[in-house]
Design brief:
alpha/beta, 13% strand
Length: 493
Protein backbone atom coordinates (compact mmCIF):
# COMPACT_ATOMS: atom_id res chain seq x y z
CA UNK A 1 0.00 0.00 0.00
CA UNK A 2 1.34 3.42 -0.84
CA UNK A 3 1.46 6.15 1.77
CA UNK A 4 -1.36 8.68 1.68
CA UNK A 5 -1.11 12.40 2.25
CA UNK A 6 -2.61 12.15 5.75
CA UNK A 7 -0.94 14.52 8.20
CA UNK A 8 -1.87 13.88 11.85
CA UNK A 9 -0.92 17.43 12.82
CA UNK A 10 -3.42 19.01 10.42
CA UNK A 11 -5.92 16.29 9.51
CA UNK A 12 -6.59 14.54 12.81
CA UNK A 13 -9.65 16.54 13.77
CA UNK A 14 -11.40 15.59 10.54
CA UNK A 15 -11.41 11.95 11.67
CA UNK A 16 -14.23 10.39 13.73
CA UNK A 17 -13.67 11.15 17.41
CA UNK A 18 -15.18 7.79 18.29
CA UNK A 19 -12.04 6.06 17.03
CA UNK A 20 -14.23 3.63 15.06
CA UNK A 21 -15.08 4.73 11.52
CA UNK A 22 -17.68 1.96 11.10
CA UNK A 23 -18.80 -1.21 12.83
CA UNK A 24 -17.95 -4.42 11.03
CA UNK A 25 -20.58 -6.60 9.40
CA UNK A 26 -20.70 -9.00 12.34
CA UNK A 27 -22.61 -11.68 10.46
CA UNK A 28 -19.99 -11.65 7.71
CA UNK A 29 -17.16 -11.81 10.27
CA UNK A 30 -18.68 -14.88 11.92
CA UNK A 31 -19.18 -16.55 8.53
CA UNK A 32 -15.46 -16.13 7.82
CA UNK A 33 -14.49 -17.32 11.30
CA UNK A 34 -16.73 -20.38 10.96
CA UNK A 35 -15.06 -21.17 7.64
CA UNK A 36 -11.61 -20.83 9.25
CA UNK A 37 -12.62 -23.27 11.98
CA UNK A 38 -14.04 -25.74 9.45
CA UNK A 39 -10.69 -25.99 7.64
CA UNK A 40 -7.56 -27.86 8.55
CA UNK A 41 -5.04 -25.49 10.06
CA UNK A 42 -2.68 -23.83 7.61
CA UNK A 43 0.51 -23.15 9.59
CA UNK A 44 3.94 -22.08 8.45
CA UNK A 45 5.75 -24.91 6.66
CA UNK A 46 8.02 -26.90 8.96
CA UNK A 47 11.19 -26.07 7.03
CA UNK A 48 10.33 -22.38 7.16
CA UNK A 49 9.51 -22.56 10.86
CA UNK A 50 13.00 -23.91 11.51
CA UNK A 51 14.36 -20.81 9.78
CA UNK A 52 12.19 -18.58 11.96
CA UNK A 53 13.44 -20.21 15.16
CA UNK A 54 17.03 -20.07 13.92
CA UNK A 55 16.69 -16.37 13.11
CA UNK A 56 15.41 -15.60 16.60
CA UNK A 57 18.20 -17.60 18.23
CA UNK A 58 20.79 -15.89 16.05
CA UNK A 59 19.56 -12.32 16.46
CA UNK A 60 18.34 -12.48 20.07
CA UNK A 61 21.01 -14.38 22.07
CA UNK A 62 20.88 -12.00 25.06
CA UNK A 63 17.11 -12.36 25.30
CA UNK A 64 17.39 -16.13 25.19
CA UNK A 65 20.06 -16.15 27.91
CA UNK A 66 18.06 -13.79 30.12
CA UNK A 67 14.93 -15.90 29.66
CA UNK A 68 16.82 -19.06 30.62
CA UNK A 69 18.13 -17.34 33.75
CA UNK A 70 14.68 -15.91 34.54
CA UNK A 71 13.26 -19.42 34.65
CA UNK A 72 15.47 -20.14 37.67
CA UNK A 73 13.95 -17.31 39.74
CA UNK A 74 10.53 -16.62 38.15
CA UNK A 75 7.85 -19.29 37.54
CA UNK A 76 8.00 -20.09 33.81
CA UNK A 77 10.39 -17.16 33.35
CA UNK A 78 7.75 -14.50 32.70
CA UNK A 79 5.44 -12.48 34.94
CA UNK A 80 3.14 -10.62 32.60
CA UNK A 81 0.17 -12.47 31.13
CA UNK A 82 0.80 -10.79 27.78
CA UNK A 83 4.40 -11.96 27.62
CA UNK A 84 5.05 -14.08 24.54
CA UNK A 85 7.59 -16.79 25.31
CA UNK A 86 7.76 -19.01 22.24
CA UNK A 87 10.41 -20.15 21.53
CA UNK A 88 11.70 -17.86 24.31
CA UNK A 89 10.72 -14.48 25.74
CA UNK A 90 12.13 -11.37 24.07
CA UNK A 91 13.48 -8.86 26.61
CA UNK A 92 12.96 -5.20 25.78
CA UNK A 93 15.00 -2.22 26.95
CA UNK A 94 13.36 0.67 25.10
CA UNK A 95 9.83 1.69 24.15
CA UNK A 96 9.18 4.85 22.18
CA UNK A 97 6.27 5.81 19.96
CA UNK A 98 5.48 2.91 17.61
CA UNK A 99 8.63 0.92 18.33
CA UNK A 100 10.23 -1.42 20.84
CA UNK A 101 13.92 -2.30 21.07
CA UNK A 102 15.24 -5.49 22.64
CA UNK A 103 18.42 -5.96 24.65
CA UNK A 104 20.19 -7.27 21.54
CA UNK A 105 19.47 -3.98 19.75
CA UNK A 106 16.73 -5.28 17.43
CA UNK A 107 13.86 -2.88 16.70
CA UNK A 108 10.22 -3.96 16.35
CA UNK A 109 6.98 -2.37 15.27
CA UNK A 110 4.91 -2.48 18.44
CA UNK A 111 1.34 -3.71 17.95
CA UNK A 112 1.16 -4.95 21.54
CA UNK A 113 1.28 -1.42 22.98
CA UNK A 114 1.52 -2.90 26.48
CA UNK A 115 -1.78 -4.69 25.98
CA UNK A 116 -3.49 -1.57 24.68
CA UNK A 117 -2.52 0.94 27.34
CA UNK A 118 -0.51 3.36 25.22
CA UNK A 119 -2.96 4.91 22.77
CA UNK A 120 -0.69 7.94 22.41
CA UNK A 121 2.28 5.69 21.64
CA UNK A 122 4.86 4.47 24.12
CA UNK A 123 6.65 6.90 26.44
CA UNK A 124 4.78 9.90 25.05
CA UNK A 125 6.96 12.94 25.72
CA UNK A 126 4.37 15.55 26.79
CA UNK A 127 3.02 13.19 29.47
CA UNK A 128 6.53 12.09 30.48
CA UNK A 129 7.48 15.74 31.07
CA UNK A 130 4.54 16.25 33.45
CA UNK A 131 5.33 13.04 35.32
CA UNK A 132 8.99 13.99 35.74
CA UNK A 133 8.02 17.43 37.04
CA UNK A 134 5.68 15.91 39.61
CA UNK A 135 8.25 13.33 40.75
CA UNK A 136 10.80 16.08 41.32
CA UNK A 137 8.39 18.08 43.50
CA UNK A 138 6.11 15.54 45.17
CA UNK A 139 7.36 12.02 44.59
CA UNK A 140 5.16 9.15 43.41
CA UNK A 141 2.98 8.70 46.49
CA UNK A 142 1.79 10.57 49.59
CA UNK A 143 -1.16 8.49 50.85
CA UNK A 144 -3.24 11.68 51.07
CA UNK A 145 -5.43 13.74 48.77
CA UNK A 146 -3.71 15.23 45.73
CA UNK A 147 -5.08 17.76 43.25
CA UNK A 148 -4.69 15.40 40.30
CA UNK A 149 -7.08 12.90 41.87
CA UNK A 150 -9.73 15.56 41.41
CA UNK A 151 -8.51 16.58 37.97
CA UNK A 152 -8.55 13.08 36.49
CA UNK A 153 -11.99 12.38 37.98
CA UNK A 154 -13.29 15.57 36.38
CA UNK A 155 -11.91 14.48 33.00
CA UNK A 156 -13.51 11.04 33.18
CA UNK A 157 -16.85 12.55 34.22
CA UNK A 158 -16.60 15.14 31.46
CA UNK A 159 -16.14 12.59 28.70
CA UNK A 160 -17.90 9.36 29.72
CA UNK A 161 -21.71 9.67 29.40
CA UNK A 162 -22.83 7.48 32.32
CA UNK A 163 -20.27 8.60 34.90
CA UNK A 164 -21.25 11.14 37.55
CA UNK A 165 -18.61 10.11 40.08
CA UNK A 166 -15.32 8.24 39.69
CA UNK A 167 -13.16 6.16 42.04
CA UNK A 168 -9.61 5.25 41.03
CA UNK A 169 -8.12 1.82 41.78
CA UNK A 170 -5.01 -0.13 40.96
CA UNK A 171 -5.94 -2.30 37.98
CA UNK A 172 -8.76 -3.63 35.83
CA UNK A 173 -8.97 -6.76 37.99
CA UNK A 174 -9.34 -4.70 41.18
CA UNK A 175 -11.92 -2.51 39.50
CA UNK A 176 -14.05 -5.46 38.41
CA UNK A 177 -13.91 -6.81 41.97
CA UNK A 178 -15.08 -3.44 43.27
CA UNK A 179 -17.82 -3.12 40.64
CA UNK A 180 -19.26 -6.53 41.52
CA UNK A 181 -19.09 -5.88 45.26
CA UNK A 182 -20.74 -2.50 44.71
CA UNK A 183 -23.53 -4.02 42.59
CA UNK A 184 -24.25 -6.64 45.25
CA UNK A 185 -24.35 -4.06 48.00
CA UNK A 186 -26.61 -1.68 46.09
CA UNK A 187 -29.07 -4.35 44.91
CA UNK A 188 -28.97 -6.75 47.83
CA UNK A 189 -28.64 -9.59 45.31
CA UNK A 190 -25.81 -12.11 44.88
CA UNK A 191 -25.80 -13.56 41.37
CA UNK A 192 -23.53 -12.23 38.61
CA UNK A 193 -23.85 -13.09 34.91
CA UNK A 194 -20.95 -12.80 32.49
CA UNK A 195 -20.56 -13.76 28.83
CA UNK A 196 -18.71 -17.02 28.21
CA UNK A 197 -15.23 -16.51 26.82
CA UNK A 198 -14.97 -13.02 28.29
CA UNK A 199 -12.09 -11.87 30.45
CA UNK A 200 -12.69 -9.64 33.46
CA UNK A 201 -9.46 -10.08 35.33
CA UNK A 202 -8.24 -12.86 37.59
CA UNK A 203 -10.26 -12.42 40.79
CA UNK A 204 -11.65 -15.65 42.26
CA UNK A 205 -15.23 -15.06 41.14
CA UNK A 206 -14.29 -14.05 37.57
CA UNK A 207 -12.06 -17.02 36.75
CA UNK A 208 -15.06 -18.66 35.16
CA UNK A 209 -15.85 -19.39 31.53
CA UNK A 210 -12.51 -18.02 30.33
CA UNK A 211 -11.57 -17.96 26.64
CA UNK A 212 -13.86 -20.81 25.57
CA UNK A 213 -17.58 -20.39 26.40
CA UNK A 214 -19.04 -23.12 28.54
CA UNK A 215 -15.84 -24.01 30.37
CA UNK A 216 -17.06 -22.71 33.74
CA UNK A 217 -14.49 -23.56 36.43
CA UNK A 218 -12.00 -25.26 34.12
CA UNK A 219 -9.30 -22.67 34.93
CA UNK A 220 -10.34 -22.19 38.58
CA UNK A 221 -7.48 -24.14 40.18
CA UNK A 222 -6.99 -23.11 43.79
CA UNK A 223 -10.43 -21.46 43.96
CA UNK A 224 -13.01 -23.14 46.23
CA UNK A 225 -16.22 -24.13 44.46
CA UNK A 226 -18.39 -22.07 46.77
CA UNK A 227 -16.76 -18.87 45.54
CA UNK A 228 -17.98 -19.57 42.00
CA UNK A 229 -21.52 -20.56 42.89
CA UNK A 230 -22.95 -17.09 42.27
CA UNK A 231 -21.15 -16.59 38.93
CA UNK A 232 -22.91 -17.73 35.75
CA UNK A 233 -22.04 -17.53 32.08
CA UNK A 234 -24.20 -17.18 28.99
CA UNK A 235 -23.39 -17.75 25.33
CA UNK A 236 -21.96 -14.81 23.36
CA UNK A 237 -24.59 -12.77 21.50
CA UNK A 238 -27.34 -15.07 22.79
CA UNK A 239 -30.05 -12.86 24.27
CA UNK A 240 -32.45 -15.78 24.74
CA UNK A 241 -29.82 -17.51 26.88
CA UNK A 242 -29.35 -14.33 28.90
CA UNK A 243 -33.10 -14.00 29.48
CA UNK A 244 -33.24 -17.64 30.60
CA UNK A 245 -30.42 -17.09 33.11
CA UNK A 246 -32.03 -13.92 34.43
CA UNK A 247 -35.28 -15.85 34.89
CA UNK A 248 -33.51 -18.69 36.70
CA UNK A 249 -31.72 -16.27 38.99
CA UNK A 250 -34.97 -14.50 39.80
CA UNK A 251 -36.10 -17.75 41.44
CA UNK A 252 -33.03 -17.78 43.69
CA UNK A 253 -32.79 -14.17 44.82
CA UNK A 254 -32.12 -12.22 41.65
CA UNK A 255 -29.16 -11.00 39.62
CA UNK A 256 -27.05 -8.17 41.02
CA UNK A 257 -25.37 -7.40 37.69
CA UNK A 258 -24.66 -8.48 34.16
CA UNK A 259 -21.06 -7.70 33.20
CA UNK A 260 -20.02 -7.49 29.55
CA UNK A 261 -17.14 -6.38 27.41
CA UNK A 262 -19.21 -4.08 25.17
CA UNK A 263 -17.15 -4.92 22.08
CA UNK A 264 -17.40 -8.67 22.67
CA UNK A 265 -15.67 -11.31 24.82
CA UNK A 266 -11.87 -11.40 24.97
CA UNK A 267 -11.49 -7.84 23.64
CA UNK A 268 -13.80 -8.44 20.68
CA UNK A 269 -12.42 -11.83 19.67
CA UNK A 270 -16.06 -12.91 19.64
CA UNK A 271 -17.51 -9.63 18.39
CA UNK A 272 -20.96 -8.36 19.32
CA UNK A 273 -23.69 -7.36 16.92
CA UNK A 274 -24.18 -3.60 16.93
CA UNK A 275 -27.51 -3.63 18.81
CA UNK A 276 -26.47 -6.27 21.37
CA UNK A 277 -25.57 -3.87 24.17
CA UNK A 278 -28.86 -1.99 23.88
CA UNK A 279 -30.78 -5.23 24.14
CA UNK A 280 -28.76 -6.27 27.19
CA UNK A 281 -29.57 -2.88 28.72
CA UNK A 282 -33.27 -3.51 28.10
CA UNK A 283 -33.12 -6.95 29.74
CA UNK A 284 -31.27 -5.58 32.76
CA UNK A 285 -33.95 -2.92 33.21
CA UNK A 286 -36.68 -5.53 32.91
CA UNK A 287 -35.12 -7.71 35.62
CA UNK A 288 -34.04 -4.81 37.88
CA UNK A 289 -30.40 -5.76 37.36
CA UNK A 290 -27.39 -3.47 37.11
CA UNK A 291 -25.38 -3.43 33.89
CA UNK A 292 -21.59 -3.26 34.18
CA UNK A 293 -19.50 -2.32 31.15
CA UNK A 294 -15.93 -3.57 31.37
CA UNK A 295 -14.25 -0.83 29.32
CA UNK A 296 -10.72 -1.75 30.32
CA UNK A 297 -9.87 -2.28 26.64
CA UNK A 298 -12.43 -0.07 24.90
CA UNK A 299 -12.24 2.87 27.31
CA UNK A 300 -10.67 5.89 25.51
CA UNK A 301 -9.51 3.57 22.69
CA UNK A 302 -13.03 3.80 21.27
CA UNK A 303 -12.90 7.52 21.87
CA UNK A 304 -13.03 9.58 25.03
CA UNK A 305 -16.60 8.43 25.69
CA UNK A 306 -15.68 4.77 25.36
CA UNK A 307 -17.78 2.07 23.73
CA UNK A 308 -20.84 3.27 25.64
CA UNK A 309 -20.78 6.55 23.73
CA UNK A 310 -20.26 4.72 20.44
CA UNK A 311 -23.19 2.35 21.04
CA UNK A 312 -25.24 5.03 22.85
CA UNK A 313 -25.89 2.75 25.82
CA UNK A 314 -25.46 3.89 29.43
CA UNK A 315 -24.31 1.18 31.86
CA UNK A 316 -24.89 1.57 35.59
CA UNK A 317 -21.22 0.98 36.42
CA UNK A 318 -18.18 1.37 34.16
CA UNK A 319 -14.86 -0.35 34.76
CA UNK A 320 -11.71 1.44 33.55
CA UNK A 321 -8.10 0.37 33.08
CA UNK A 322 -5.24 0.34 30.55
CA UNK A 323 -5.50 3.69 28.69
CA UNK A 324 -6.68 5.46 31.84
CA UNK A 325 -3.14 6.38 32.93
CA UNK A 326 -1.52 6.47 29.50
CA UNK A 327 0.73 3.49 30.12
CA UNK A 328 1.73 4.31 33.69
CA UNK A 329 1.06 1.88 36.58
CA UNK A 330 -2.01 1.70 38.83
CA UNK A 331 -4.43 2.01 35.91
CA UNK A 332 -7.89 1.17 37.18
CA UNK A 333 -11.14 2.70 38.31
CA UNK A 334 -14.91 2.55 38.34
CA UNK A 335 -17.53 5.18 37.62
CA UNK A 336 -21.29 5.48 37.65
CA UNK A 337 -24.29 7.39 38.92
CA UNK A 338 -23.82 9.36 42.15
CA UNK A 339 -26.35 7.36 44.16
CA UNK A 340 -24.46 4.16 43.31
CA UNK A 341 -20.94 5.52 43.68
CA UNK A 342 -21.48 7.15 47.08
CA UNK A 343 -21.47 3.68 48.58
CA UNK A 344 -17.71 3.69 47.90
CA UNK A 345 -16.98 6.75 50.05
CA UNK A 346 -13.50 6.23 51.48
CA UNK A 347 -11.43 7.46 54.38
CA UNK A 348 -11.96 7.26 58.11
CA UNK A 349 -15.41 8.47 59.06
CA UNK A 350 -17.42 9.97 56.22
CA UNK A 351 -21.17 10.04 55.74
CA UNK A 352 -23.49 7.26 56.88
CA UNK A 353 -24.86 4.40 54.86
CA UNK A 354 -23.95 0.83 54.10
CA UNK A 355 -20.46 1.21 52.70
CA UNK A 356 -18.88 -0.97 50.01
CA UNK A 357 -15.34 -1.51 51.25
CA UNK A 358 -12.50 -1.09 48.75
CA UNK A 359 -8.94 0.00 49.37
CA UNK A 360 -5.45 0.25 47.94
CA UNK A 361 -2.36 1.92 49.37
CA UNK A 362 -1.20 3.11 45.95
CA UNK A 363 -4.61 3.78 44.40
CA UNK A 364 -4.95 7.31 42.97
CA UNK A 365 -1.30 8.10 43.72
CA UNK A 366 0.11 11.37 42.37
CA UNK A 367 2.22 9.69 39.69
CA UNK A 368 -0.71 7.76 38.19
CA UNK A 369 -3.21 10.57 38.45
CA UNK A 370 -0.97 13.20 36.88
CA UNK A 371 -0.10 10.77 34.07
CA UNK A 372 -3.77 9.91 33.53
CA UNK A 373 -4.93 13.51 33.59
CA UNK A 374 -2.43 14.68 30.99
CA UNK A 375 -2.83 11.52 28.90
CA UNK A 376 -6.57 12.17 28.64
CA UNK A 377 -5.96 15.84 27.86
CA UNK A 378 -3.53 14.84 25.11
CA UNK A 379 -5.95 12.26 23.72
CA UNK A 380 -8.53 15.04 23.48
CA UNK A 381 -6.14 17.60 21.97
CA UNK A 382 -4.74 15.25 19.33
CA UNK A 383 -7.80 13.05 18.62
CA UNK A 384 -5.54 10.09 19.36
CA UNK A 385 -8.41 7.60 19.11
CA UNK A 386 -9.29 8.83 15.63
CA UNK A 387 -5.68 8.63 14.41
CA UNK A 388 -5.15 5.18 15.94
CA UNK A 389 -8.49 4.01 14.53
CA UNK A 390 -7.51 5.17 11.05
CA UNK A 391 -4.24 3.23 11.40
CA UNK A 392 -6.27 0.18 12.44
CA UNK A 393 -8.51 0.55 9.38
CA UNK A 394 -5.49 0.80 7.13
CA UNK A 395 -3.76 -2.19 8.73
CA UNK A 396 -6.90 -4.34 8.55
CA UNK A 397 -7.59 -3.47 4.91
CA UNK A 398 -4.00 -4.35 4.00
CA UNK A 399 -4.16 -7.67 5.85
CA UNK A 400 -7.41 -8.56 4.10
CA UNK A 401 -5.79 -7.86 0.72
CA UNK A 402 -2.79 -10.07 1.52
CA UNK A 403 -4.99 -12.89 2.84
CA UNK A 404 -7.18 -12.83 -0.28
CA UNK A 405 -4.25 -12.56 -2.68
CA UNK A 406 -2.50 -15.54 -1.07
CA UNK A 407 -5.67 -17.61 -0.87
CA UNK A 408 -5.45 -18.17 2.88
CA UNK A 409 -8.42 -18.93 5.17
CA UNK A 410 -7.24 -16.39 7.74
CA UNK A 411 -9.59 -13.66 8.97
CA UNK A 412 -8.85 -10.00 9.67
CA UNK A 413 -11.37 -7.54 11.06
CA UNK A 414 -11.09 -4.49 13.26
CA UNK A 415 -12.89 -2.35 15.76
CA UNK A 416 -10.99 0.86 15.18
CA UNK A 417 -7.52 0.49 16.65
CA UNK A 418 -8.19 -3.09 17.79
CA UNK A 419 -7.26 -5.32 14.84
CA UNK A 420 -8.00 -9.02 15.05
CA UNK A 421 -5.95 -11.41 12.94
CA UNK A 422 -7.20 -14.97 13.30
CA UNK A 423 -4.99 -17.59 11.69
CA UNK A 424 -5.44 -20.70 13.85
CA UNK A 425 -8.91 -20.04 15.28
CA UNK A 426 -8.00 -21.50 18.68
CA UNK A 427 -9.76 -18.68 20.53
CA UNK A 428 -12.99 -19.50 18.68
CA UNK A 429 -13.35 -23.12 19.73
CA UNK A 430 -16.47 -23.86 21.73
CA UNK A 431 -17.77 -26.63 23.95
CA UNK A 432 -20.87 -26.67 21.78
CA UNK A 433 -18.57 -28.92 19.72
CA UNK A 434 -16.60 -30.58 22.54
CA UNK A 435 -14.89 -33.29 20.49
CA UNK A 436 -13.55 -30.74 18.03
CA UNK A 437 -12.43 -28.46 20.87
CA UNK A 438 -10.59 -31.26 22.69
CA UNK A 439 -9.06 -32.67 19.51
CA UNK A 440 -7.89 -29.41 17.97
CA UNK A 441 -7.12 -27.08 20.87
CA UNK A 442 -3.46 -28.03 21.31
CA UNK A 443 -2.46 -27.91 17.64
CA UNK A 444 -4.36 -24.68 16.98
CA UNK A 445 -2.76 -23.09 20.04
CA UNK A 446 0.69 -24.17 18.88
CA UNK A 447 0.04 -22.70 15.46
CA UNK A 448 -0.87 -19.37 17.08
CA UNK A 449 2.44 -19.51 18.98
CA UNK A 450 4.31 -20.23 15.77
CA UNK A 451 2.65 -17.34 13.95
CA UNK A 452 3.50 -15.01 16.84
CA UNK A 453 7.11 -16.15 16.71
CA UNK A 454 7.24 -15.57 12.95
CA UNK A 455 5.85 -12.05 13.38
CA UNK A 456 8.52 -11.38 16.01
CA UNK A 457 11.28 -12.72 13.76
CA UNK A 458 10.07 -10.27 11.11
CA UNK A 459 10.15 -7.33 13.48
CA UNK A 460 6.51 -7.21 14.63
CA UNK A 461 5.31 -7.57 18.21
CA UNK A 462 1.69 -8.71 18.45
CA UNK A 463 -0.72 -9.54 21.24
CA UNK A 464 -0.52 -13.34 21.52
CA UNK A 465 -0.11 -13.67 17.77
CA UNK A 466 -3.78 -12.93 17.16
CA UNK A 467 -4.45 -9.26 17.91
CA UNK A 468 -2.76 -6.04 16.81
CA UNK A 469 -3.28 -2.76 18.64
CA UNK A 470 -2.49 0.48 16.87
CA UNK A 471 -1.66 3.83 18.41
CA UNK A 472 -1.43 7.47 17.40
CA UNK A 473 2.24 6.85 16.63
CA UNK A 474 1.42 4.46 13.76
CA UNK A 475 1.94 6.61 10.68
CA UNK A 476 1.10 5.48 7.15
CA UNK A 477 4.73 4.52 6.36
CA UNK A 478 4.88 2.39 9.54
CA UNK A 479 1.65 0.59 8.64
CA UNK A 480 2.89 0.05 5.07
CA UNK A 481 6.15 -1.42 6.34
CA UNK A 482 4.24 -3.68 8.75
CA UNK A 483 2.10 -4.96 5.89
CA UNK A 484 5.22 -5.80 3.88
CA UNK A 485 6.45 -7.83 6.84
CA UNK A 486 3.13 -9.63 7.26
CA UNK A 487 3.25 -10.49 3.56
CA UNK A 488 6.68 -12.04 4.09
CA UNK A 489 5.37 -14.13 6.98
CA UNK A 490 2.32 -15.36 5.05
CA UNK A 491 4.65 -16.35 2.20
CA UNK A 492 6.11 -18.95 4.60
CA UNK A 493 2.79 -20.82 4.85
Amino acid sequence: MSASAFNPDTDAMSLPKSGVSKWHDTKEVYAKLDYLLSQKIKPIKAKNMKKVINKLETTCPKSKALYQHAQTVIPNGVQHNLAFNYPFAIAMDKAKGAYLRDIDGNQYIDFLQAGGTTLLGSNYQPVLDKVQNLLAECGPVTGLLHQYEVKIAEEVIKHVPSVEMFRMLGSGTESVMAAIRLARNITGKKHIIKVGGGYHGWSDQMVYGLRIPGTGRREAHGIPKDISKYTHEVCPNDLANLRLMLNLNSLRGGTAAVIVEPIGPESGTRPVYFDYNQQVRTLCDEFDTLLIFDEVVSGFRFGLGGAQAYFNVDPDITVFGKCLTGGYPMAGGIGGRKEIMMSLAGGIGGKGGKKTFVGGTLSANPLSTVAGYYAIKEMERTNAAGIAGRAGDRLCAGLEEIIERRGLPYVAYNQGSIVHLETSGVLLLTLAKPIKALRENAKRKHMMEQMGAAYTAHGIISLAGSCLLTSMADTDPIIDEALNRFDEVFALV
